[in-house]
Amino acid sequence: MKRDKPKYRQIIDAAVVVFAENGYHQAQVSKIAKQAGVADGTIYLYFKSKEEILIQMFQEKMSVFVTNLKEILKEDNSAAEKLYKMVENHFNVLYSDKLLATVTQLELRQSNKEIRLRINEVLKEYLSLLDEILIEGRKNGEFDEGMDVRLARQMVFGTIDETITTWVMNDQKYNLMDLAPKVYKLLLNGMRA
Amino acid sequence: MKRDKPKYRQIIDAAVVVFAENGYHQAQVSKIAKQAGVADGTIYLYFKSKEEILIQMFQEKMSVFVTNLKEILKEDNSAAEKLYKMVENHFNVLYSDKLLATVTQLELRQSNKEIRLRINEVLKEYLSLLDEILIEGRKNGEFDEGMDVRLARQMVFGTIDETITTWVMNDQKYNLMDLAPKVYKLLLNGMRA
Amino acid sequence: MKRDKPKYRQIIDAAVVVFAENGYHQAQVSKIAKQAGVADGTIYLYFKSKEEILIQMFQEKMSVFVTNLKEILKEDNSAAEKLYKMVENHFNVLYSDKLLATVTQLELRQSNKEIRLRINEVLKEYLSLLDEILIEGRKNGEFDEGMDVRLARQMVFGTIDETITTWVMNDQKYNLMDLAPKVYKLLLNGMRA
Amino acid sequence: MKRDKPKYRQIIDAAVVVFAENGYHQAQVSKIAKQAGVADGTIYLYFKSKEEILIQMFQEKMSVFVTNLKEILKEDNSAAEKLYKMVENHFNVLYSDKLLATVTQLELRQSNKEIRLRINEVLKEYLSLLDEILIEGRKNGEFDEGMDVRLARQMVFGTIDETITTWVMNDQKYNLMDLAPKVYKLLLNGMRA
DNA sequence: TATGAATGAGTCTTCATTCAT
DNA sequence: CATGAATGAAGACTCATTCAT
């Protein structure tokens, strides 16, 4: 399996650094290769194209969000508590890896429509897990029974996303983690019965 | 004044079409010129660069949002009602001009960081007006007095933005306007005292 | 006659300024028009093309050299004295009009081969007058009777030209006129019997 | 070292041909690439820009003049003999490579001021060696002790340059080498004590 | 005569990808 | 597996010239 080989990881990690430091359009394959310590051509032994690096990088990194969220879902907590942990986790992953935050919130979005559609595919699993929380909360009366799950999910994700993007655009100069409880409270109110 | 000349408008309108149909990076200046019915060089009599077309187009179109929102603020209504009208207006403007919706939600974001910073400048006026609603509602007790206005604004804008982007990504195949009251209700709950 | 109309002169004078200040390749027709205080299109009522401005400008300015040199030839002096006055005049004209010096020594030479051939045509009259001095001097024994007039002319003109070009390239920071007697002496020696 | 690779030389040689045949402004990079038998992009693996080709080409070719002149200076000859050999060498190098003569005397000068300043830098070494001859001759009494070396150098170089340029402009239709002794004699007279 | 808005041909350079070694 | 030299397609922008007014 290619993904387990050390060069595969080297390249993915190099891509995060190069995208964060140079922006999407200045992230040439040769820069990524240099950062990874391999030859340009070697990239193509592991990835079909430059776009593929981007997508696989996103998949790799998203898997952390998904893995963590699955753990959160397994715990014996209320839907509200799960929601809180989900928000906190989302903030925490990007707060802990500021390069990654820059890449996901800014640079990645400069890719073309087709890539972003594929990125959205990757996001879907994460959003489904979020839906599970929302459905559970609606069923057990924590959230409003008339709540539209799809819209609620868009509110949760849209709010989180906007909050983090603003933080990144402001050069990450305030403490993102301080916002987690406040964002949670706002969102919870929105959905409460 | 260049902005009042017919060719200026022709080019702006052509740019919306070409950006929507081809995406930012496939929107060659020659395509825009052809769509506008002018020579390539004519573009540069009205715009300093291709990027400038994008920014000016955004400014022109954003001014509709701002103008409408200013009207809404003048009316003698509760903050909640103003919020409702704001959401409805935002949805309506993009629902009424589906090409524009594609451009603002998808294509515009492919531009580089610098352009997006300038676009954000334009957005600021709109977001300030939104803040006015939120502050008014907080003051008169409609919204929670402990509410963080900046976060609330990010929730409102983030939710609206995510909702519309999802609609565009789904090829605008459902009726966006149906979502306005529901989105409003979710947001209002979030902020209610 | 077009040459007598005021706009013709305005444009020629503007061209000297614009060529000197911006260099040949940055001397756009629109800049010349602006400097001359006329519309772009007006240029083409007086000149067939941009190249034509250059050539006519050179002709106009060269005529000063020629007129002065004709006066010098008429005077009742030895060939050596005429040569001295010729050198002095050449230096003086360009020393007195530093913009013109920049144009003739640097900017004009950036034009293409065809233009420079036409400029050389204009130079020919001047060089023929120089030949007259050389032939006279050779005939009356002032200069070496075995002297090749064409080569001697190339020495005289080449030396003058190189001297002035060096002065211009050094930002005209020393006094060109001080060099006239020394250059004359060098050249005279070269040709003396 | 890039300069030792065969493609580097191929491109330099192709550039001489293309510049000579088409002139500076009609010497498109794609023409040079075609003439060199490489892809357009390959040019940029060896040269930073089109201008850089010009400058490096000039440096490569000028080095022949300088190398030869250094040899001449080493020989145990009078300053006058060295001057003669210098003139002869200068004529001979360009007489032997008529394409190069066209490029140095005509096409190179069409480049902009900045490039010509860099070209002048390259010339300086050559002119310093010429100065050595002149100073030596002045010291040992061969040349006039009151001679201004800078002016004498400008006479020597200006005369040579003008002679060769005239020869090139006349389509190199007479034998340049025949002029060497005559030019030498003229110059020597100019400087003789 | 004079204007100046409009035209559209023309080119350097970048960089993702390939392939001979 | 790994290399990195070579490829070549693609596009924003300038500016001399025209022509309707």
Count of helical segments of chain A? 9
Percent helix range of chain A: over 70%
Number of separate structural domains of chain A: 2
Unreliable spans of chain A: none
**Gross morphology of chain A:** elongated
Protein name (chains A, B, C, D): TetR/AcrR family transcriptional regulator
Keywords (chains A, B, C, D): DNA-binding
Domain HTH tetR-type (chains A, B, C, D): 5-65
DNA-binding region (chains A, B, C, D): 28-47
Overview of this protein structure:
- The structure is a homotetramer of 193-residue chains.
- Chain A has 193 residues and is mainly α.
- Chain A has nine helices and no strands.
- Chain A is elongated.
- At the A-B interface, helix 7, helix 8 and helix 9 of A face helix 7, helix 8 and helix 9 of B.
- Chain A binds a DNA duplex (21 and 21 nucleotides) through helix 2 and helix 3.
- Chains A, B, C, D: It holds the Pfam family TetR_C_4.
- Chains A, B, C, D: This is TetR/AcrR family transcriptional regulator.
- Chains A, B, C, D: InterPro entries: Homeodomain-like_sf, HTH-type_Tx_Regulator, HTH_TetR, Tet_transcr_reg_TetR-rel_C_sf, Tscrpt_reg_YsiA_C.
- Chains A, B, C, D: Keywords: DNA-binding.
